[in-house]
Structure of AI-2E family transporter:
Amino acid sequence: MLKKIGGLARAIYILLAIVAGFVALGMMDVALVLVVLGLIAGLAMPRDRMVMAGVLLLALPALGAALTHVPAIGAQLAAVCGNLQLGVAGALATALAIMLYELVMEGVMGLTGGAGAGTPAAATH
């Protein structure tokens, strides 16, 4: 269920980023909606996609700057890149928070002996 919700949020923020790049949506705070949808989408982001999301987050501003040179629609394409960056940033923030939580819990469980300890010392004679 979580993957479906995360996938739907990802699809919505991608579509909204594209639409908002070409059409002025004055009725809502598009940046806030994109970040919130990204935060929801990050709940379903697998760890193997986190590196790609980080690279995409860093590459989108440069890509947007390059696309501004396209005649007639360059500014809109740059806006789409900026909007996509907001969604990806939200998704990566949630995925990173989940990963850090799992690392902390793994460390705490290791301290308390939550994992199997193996064979007892008396049984090793």
